[in-house]
Amino acid sequence: MSGRIKILDEATITKIAAGEIIERPASVVKELIENSIDANSQNIIVEIKGGGKDYIRVTDDGTGIDENQVELAFIRHSTSKISSIDDLNNIHSLGFRGEALASISMVSKVETLTRARDSTKGIRVFIDNGKIVDKQVIGCPVGTSMILRELFYNVPVRRKFLKKETAESNYVSDIVYKLALGNPNISFKYIKDDRLILKTPGTNDIVSNIYSILGKEFIDNLLELNYKDDTLNIKGYVSKNSFYRGNRRHQYIFVNKRWVKNYEITKTIEDCYKSVIPINKFPIFIFFIDIDPSNIDVNIHPTKEEIKFVDQSKIDELINGLVIENINKVVTIPKVEIIP
Ligand code: ADP
Ligand code: MG
């Protein structure tokens, strides 16, 4: 059906673009938590119902959004995190594309409660199809709460392709666990269908954070590795040679607190284990890499799951050295007082 070429209206463009970053409830949860992290929150509460298809709520105690900025936040390409292309060389936040809230509000019914730190009152806005349909002044604590209802109610094809409730809620859990693991300084609460599923201490103690998320077996079977120079800090927890799994579920890499996939690092670590664990089994690892942001490119993927290191081989060599050196040691990470 060819016809006249026309430029699509903004609402249609945003709805199409939304598909790129909002694929399922878990994508919404990821974007909302990342916003809460970027807002310097100490406490983040994630609630879902019906696998997130019916209800998602993320509440934080971060900076909040200024009353007269709320409308802007939902417009596409609006962000407080960068101002120019040069800022991309020095990204300290998880977000910067200014697309998440615009996308989310085009494909679900959104309610936002927010109060900025220096404001005496909060506001509540309702957004539907990307537009503010109601706005009220309310009393609320400092921070932001984003509530989403009926994801993809206006994009039936997307809704139809969502999986069953349990499968979708597993995707959500996966993302909550990853973000909680990568941010030990923040206390996360995760509530699924009114049941508290996870609570992390938020004390910035990596080991007690791992304990609260993955449990005692992990703490007892991981080795701690450390490397530090002027531009790079690597902290890794890798499995002892007697601890492995039949899949890669428990392999985590965080770069500047961002969970990323990095095939090279994964392969480097797995190669180290080749001769020590059975074939078709996979080591467990949690790596925290803090690097000068000018040494990475985070803008190569819409959901930013992949990044590029300026010097990938330096990272691979360092990690290879650390793992090889420690893999056969029997020492474990120091025992800590675990406060459940
Ligand atoms: P990005 O995160 O890429 O900037 P978003 O669409 O996710 O884009 O958010 C747009 C803007 O809304 C952010 O830049 C931020 O200023 C504001 N914002 C969103 N969520 C929060 C939050 N939980 N707390 C404070 N500000 C927020
Ligand atoms: Mg964002």
Automatic annotation (TrEMBL):
Domain of life: Bacteria
Keywords: Coiled coil, DNA damage, DNA repair
Gene Ontology MF: a single term: mismatched DNA binding
Ranges where the DNA mismatch repair protein S5 domain occurs: 210-328
Full protein segment contained here: 1 to 340 of 605
Gene Ontology cellular-component annotations: mismatch repair complex
Source organism: Sporanaerobacter acetigenes DSM 13106
Record family assignment: Belongs to the DNA mismatch repair MutL/HexB family.
Function summary: This protein is involved in the repair of mismatches in DNA. It is required for dam-dependent methyl-directed DNA mismatch repair. May act as a 'molecular matchmaker', a protein that promotes the formation of a stable complex between two or more DNA-binding proteins in an ATP-dependent manner without itself being part of a final effector complex.
Lineage: Bacteria, Bacillati, Bacillota, Tissierellia, Tissierellales
Gene Ontology BP, a term: mismatch repair
UniProt protein name: DNA mismatch repair protein MutL
Keyword Coiled coil annotated: yes
Keyword S-adenosyl-L-methionine on entry: no
